[in-house]
Amino acid sequence: MGWVMAMVLATTAHADEGMWMPSQLPSIARQLRAAGFQGNPADLADLTQAPLSAVVKVGGATGSFVSSDGLVLTNHHVAFGVIQYNSNAQRDLIQNGFVSHDRAEELPANPDFRLRVTTGFDKVTDKVLGAAKGKTGRAYYDAVDAASKALVTECEREPGMRCSVVNMFYGRDFYLVKQLELRDVRLVYAPPRAIGNYGDEVDNFVWPRHSGDFTILRAYVGPDGKPADYAKDNVPYHPPAHLQIASQGVREGDFVMLAGYPGVTYRHRTAAEFADQVQWRLPATVDVLRQLQDVIEEVGHTDRQATIRYASQLQSLKNNIKRFSGELDGLKRSDAVAIRRKDEDAMLSWLAAQPSAATLRPQIDEVAQLIAAGNATRERDLLLAVMQTQTQLMRSALTLQRLAHERAKPDAQRESGYQQRDEDLTAGMLRQVQRRYDPKVEKQLLASLLTRYQKLPDAQRLPEFDAAFGRSPAELSGTLDKVYAATQLGDEAQRLHWLKAEPAELAKSNDALLMLVGKLQPALLRIEEERKAREGDLLRLRPAYMDALIAYREKQGRAVYPDANSTLRVSYGKVTPLEARDAVVYHPLTTTAGIVEKNTGVEPFDAPKPLLDAIARGDYAGYADARTGAMPVDFLSNLDTTGGNSGSPVLNAKGELVGLNFDSNWEAVSASWMFDPRYKRAIHVDLRYMRWLMDKVYPAPQLLKELGIPAHAAP
Amino acid sequence: MGWVMAMVLATTAHADEGMWMPSQLPSIARQLRAAGFQGNPADLADLTQAPLSAVVKVGGATGSFVSSDGLVLTNHHVAFGVIQYNSNAQRDLIQNGFVSHDRAEELPANPDFRLRVTTGFDKVTDKVLGAAKGKTGRAYYDAVDAASKALVTECEREPGMRCSVVNMFYGRDFYLVKQLELRDVRLVYAPPRAIGNYGDEVDNFVWPRHSGDFTILRAYVGPDGKPADYAKDNVPYHPPAHLQIASQGVREGDFVMLAGYPGVTYRHRTAAEFADQVQWRLPATVDVLRQLQDVIEEVGHTDRQATIRYASQLQSLKNNIKRFSGELDGLKRSDAVAIRRKDEDAMLSWLAAQPSAATLRPQIDEVAQLIAAGNATRERDLLLAVMQTQTQLMRSALTLQRLAHERAKPDAQRESGYQQRDEDLTAGMLRQVQRRYDPKVEKQLLASLLTRYQKLPDAQRLPEFDAAFGRSPAELSGTLDKVYAATQLGDEAQRLHWLKAEPAELAKSNDALLMLVGKLQPALLRIEEERKAREGDLLRLRPAYMDALIAYREKQGRAVYPDANSTLRVSYGKVTPLEARDAVVYHPLTTTAGIVEKNTGVEPFDAPKPLLDAIARGDYAGYADARTGAMPVDFLSNLDTTGGNSGSPVLNAKGELVGLNFDSNWEAVSASWMFDPRYKRAIHVDLRYMRWLMDKVYPAPQLLKELGIPAHAAP
């Protein structure tokens, strides 16, 4: 596609964009049918009814029931913790995979592993906003928070239920989500790592892909049918619905749809927020993180021990730098800022002629002012946020002092993260410090961040910080040397002691770092207070922006889906090639030939011998593409996904399972802000590959039978 | 295409393979027409007649006449020396390009730049082999050499002619090539570097490509019409023929053909030579070169000065390692060894039943024995060859001692490279030493190579080397330290003095390195003598292998082209996409959209502003693809090419110029040994891009007129 033509397309609404709430599907029934869906969109409207009730939340990702006895299909990488938990030197399930031959062999998941089945999704906007009406700022925020917490508490009275209040369209609508939490989940079938994660980091975000990224679990309940911890006598859970695996595969152009729990998107943010993200936030974040990377790598030249301690943080910095840079490149390539600006300008022009302008426009203007006000200190806020996540002792001190502050309140009123139920997590963090800390490195990281801070204009700096660290790099360096030489926070027992200590003990402590942080804390609390007030007002005012946008889109003949927020969404589209660059076309289906091409015998391209042997035999009867004779592995679609959609079932026009979502392409890393139809693709395991593996390579005939899939064993 | 299916294809003869001698084209007329050629193949049979007489040799590459007044089209990278010669700080033609507005502005090339127009191509097999008949070994070699030299001397009596004897099918047929050598060549039109070499090393061997790799020169002769050195009064040369630029472009699947001077291929080498190349030579060479790379990089950690001196050698080592590794990967991917072995076995089985077997088979067996005999010392020979090319002082000493040895003979009988006409080149080499030499590094390079040598079995080692360097690394190291501390070869004046000195002075010299090399020289001369004897016998015997192969192919209904040897060849095929890997397809045409996509503003992706502006304007009328509206840049074909084909004209079915060959794809780096139709592609400038640049971006209306191309200027 020519560049100019593509630019035109990118500015046009695209039919395949959208992470729809199931309740919205009847209203877009016409376009859904036009795209090729053969079922009745009305049947998809209630996510607590079949078939969508088969789609479950697995940790932060997605899975789906695929048998009436509770089999769950999800990704290998989503269930990886379960596989790891059951692996040891004698029985390495990561390396060898796992096939359970009967139910007695199924292996219990780690005890904190959870499946959640959504049983209720009710609109509670009036209840949530009732007490907030008329309030502003922090008071509005607190009223919403209190009403939400009350609804959750009420809902969770029913045993085995996990509830939450979610908001759609940035505070416009609120829903109470009720989920049955299943605690006994067992491992049933997993391919070896070199199939489930073939290509690993090298192929991450890459198409063409050749992973068999799937795993099968089974949910169990107590003999009474209620959620229960693992027990030998538990029985398979009978889900309210399960999906049927298709007997046929897909081809380029076929209709597909997907249901899952996408985490977060920013598609309906304002033009100013788009500009901030592209013109400042992404480049500035990359710049700050690169500076930290440099510090760690520089130390690595001479100190092997420090290199090891910071290896994981360095890897994470690099991943984030790569990811943010990719997002920035993508948003620039899509010209996202200009397109969003043009769209918003058109909306505001249209709005000016509407009766609603009188009430909406002032609120929209106020949103813009609030965003601008937040941006006034964005450099400082970025540095403080990075300081709190990229340090060990400093973070420990900040956490301990904040905890002492929160403990003065009743537990229910404490800031989340500092309630009693959070203390185990905090203790874990305080323990990890030892393996990840070196005083020399931490001082240099802080010096790097705070030297930047010292250069900020007066309006962004904080008196408490200036007093503590001085105004020059020399003062800063002297303070850090002195404080880190004197603190006892480097001692694990001492940290854990302070975690349990009374607030008064911390207040009296003469530990150098605790005292320093004690002086900084008022500034941090003040900033947080300001932020919450702003967020309260945004929660109150953004719905006006969304009302205008929804009305404007309606006039354009388009429905609006809410930005993703980890609730169940449906997207639809088709099996689609990718023209990633000029003259470069990626076919939407990969084949086993590509496994052989990529195979080096060395991790991560070390396909297991049984797989290579089976490919050499070419026994694909019943699975291969009838036209080409090739055996499919993965496929590509233009489905609208984001993080959290891992493990989402991909369905064909009849609603049968044809694929399992597990990744997206590198060009789509900016899709959380903007869906560019040229580049947005999702990557799925072709279920023909899964079926073939379970039939011919690591056979599990009884499972195929339970899944209702015919095996194609050689005669 | 599935992997299994592709494997089958690769074992089948492929119609598009072949670098045909023009005289062969009438014999393959049927397949040429079937492929789409619309002309008369008989018209292409004589390379001294139109249209092939328009194809000229430009240095080691190719060009073609494109006007009756001597305009020559070739690559930017082929004419780069001419552009560089005319560039300086005030007038940077590399950076800015060059447009001559009338003939007076045309700029003379560097004085050693030559165009060669082939005017004769006569079979001289009988004359060359007459005196060799009945001889063997070195005598056979010398007889062929003497007869060839005599023919060349005779031929070059005509002023302005450059002659050579070339052999086809490894000694089966000999031809006398007569070429008119044009010495006054001028620069007429060159795009800026950032167009002519857009992407540079990053895109080298890469498709999709976006280079405008073309330059236009003009040949001049004296007022008498004869070749002459540059002079103001010279007049444009009127070539015997010139090519016409097509008014239409190409599309995927279109017939194309190409004429040029491919350098060297090994397609008809024996199965044993294929096995040697893949199983030993490429991996061993990469291993040795990597060891040298390690030595240089290791020193670089601590010695900045040495790093700079060896930067160019290191770059060259890396390039060679990459290239050889790519060739190895390609030959393995194509399963070249097994396929060639199977083919040769089939040929020998077929031959066994033929009457000719009685005479051919013994000779073929003798070829195999000679190859095996050469391989018996291949490890040693590789190390000695690398020692002579990858050192500075050692190479200087070897060259000076050999020169002294050769000077004892009449000039005509000296080894080529050591004749009087070679001494300027040698002096240049001896001068360069200073900038590329560090004694510490050279000693380590030699230690690395000679330690390997010391581990070779007795049968491969040489008494002279053992005596000079000892049998242990310690002795070796001691010798190198002593010799390099004592030699005066590090001094440039001294080296140049020895270059001019009488052989007797060198013989008496007590310079440590010259003396050492003096002791090694008898061994090196002995090895060379053995090699020439073997080569003489191979020259005598390989024709039997070729006779058998040609007869066997004839029975298969296939003609055989001779391996490339820098003589004019024609290949034909079509505009072809590349399926480089599973699910990855490269379209055969790139567009200006790709220039914008790749552009970073930083070299080598720094497209000039006039180009970017013209793309933004999108004024492509008369040039863009009618169907897509896209403006083509480069295109891809399956034409059979190798090094030397740079600048080759690419013609359409009517024989009109549609493209200019300038590179091949990375997957085709193994094509010098085997043409794999799945991967072998050639990369061409689309002449629509050239015409558009000359019309709209850096206009040269008078040139377009001379080229007979309509301009499409805006009204």
From TrEMBL, chains A, B:
<keyword id="KW-0732">Signal</keyword>
<dbReference type="GO" id="GO:0043171">
    <property type="term" value="P:peptide catabolic process"/>
</dbReference>
<comment type="function">
    <text>Catalyzes the removal of dipeptides from the N-terminus of oligopeptides.</text>
</comment>
<dbReference type="InterPro" id="IPR043504">
    <property type="entry name" value="Peptidase_S1_PA_chymotrypsin"/>
</dbReference>
<keyword id="KW-0031">Aminopeptidase</keyword>
<dbReference type="GO" id="GO:0008239">
    <property type="term" value="F:dipeptidyl-peptidase activity"/>
</dbReference>
<keyword id="KW-0645">Protease</keyword>
<dbReference type="InterPro" id="IPR009003">
    <property type="entry name" value="Peptidase_S1_PA"/>
</dbReference>
<dbReference type="InterPro" id="IPR019500">
    <property type="entry name" value="Pep_S46"/>
</dbReference>
<dbReference type="GO" id="GO:0070009">
    <property type="term" value="F:serine-type aminopeptidase activity"/>
</dbReference>
<dbReference type="GO" id="GO:0006508">
    <property type="term" value="P:proteolysis"/>
</dbReference>
<dbReference type="Pfam" id="PF10459">
    <property type="entry name" value="Peptidase_S46"/>
</dbReference>
<keyword id="KW-0378">Hydrolase</keyword>
<keyword id="KW-0720">Serine protease</keyword>
<comment type="similarity">
    <text>Belongs to the peptidase S46 family.</text>
</comment>
<protein>
    <recommendedName>
        <fullName>Dipeptidyl-peptidase</fullName>
        <ecNumber>3.4.14.-</ecNumber>
    </recommendedName>
</protein>
